[in-house]
Amino acid sequence: MQTPPPDPGVGVSSSLQIAGRLESVPHPDHLSANPQNESTDLALELAQMVADKQGTDILVLDVATTLGIADYFVIATARNPRHAQAVARNLDLTLKHRGQLRRNIAGLEGESGWVLLDFNTVVVHIFSGAAREFYGLENLWADAPRVAFSPTETPATSDQDWLSDSEESFPDSIGNL
Predict the structure, then answer these.
(1) The pTM of the whole model exceeds 0.85
(2) Residue 173 gets which letter from DSSP?
(3) Which of 38, 48, 73, 120 could be a cystine partner for 61, CB 3.0 to 4.6 Å?
C-alpha cells in the first residue's frame, strides 16, 4: 500500500491507494471531534423517541467493542407487530426529516414481530413481546455494556407539525404527480 505525499492545504482531502484504486480520505479537520459521543446521543435520543411512542423495556447496549458495524443497539418492546411497525415508521420519518437517513430497514412488511432500523452507528430493534422473548437478543449480547437510560416524561402533544401535513408525512409517496 502506497500513500502519496501529504497535501499541503489545511482541511483538504488526501488520497490513499488501496488495492490498486485511489481512494479519497477525509482530512481529520472534517471529522467529528468525538463521533462516539454523537453515537451515544443518537442512541439515547432514539430510545427516548421509542419511549414517547409507548415502547417499553427499552435497553441500550454498547456493542462498539464487539461489533464492527455499529456502536449501539437500542432494543425495545412494542404491544404487537403493528405497534412495532408504527414506532419504526415514526423513527424513520423523524430522522429522515432531519436529514439523517437510515442505511437499512427490515420487518415493516408482514407480522414477524421484529422491526430493525439501521442508522449506521445505531441499530434499533423493536420487538413484539413474544418475538423479543423468542429471539433473546439481550441474552446474545449479555457481555455488552448497558448504557444508562431512563425515559423522561414528555407532555402529551401531537406529533411534530410536519407529520400532520399529508404531503410531508410520506416523503417517499408518489402523491403529487
Answers:
(1) no
(2) S
(3) 73
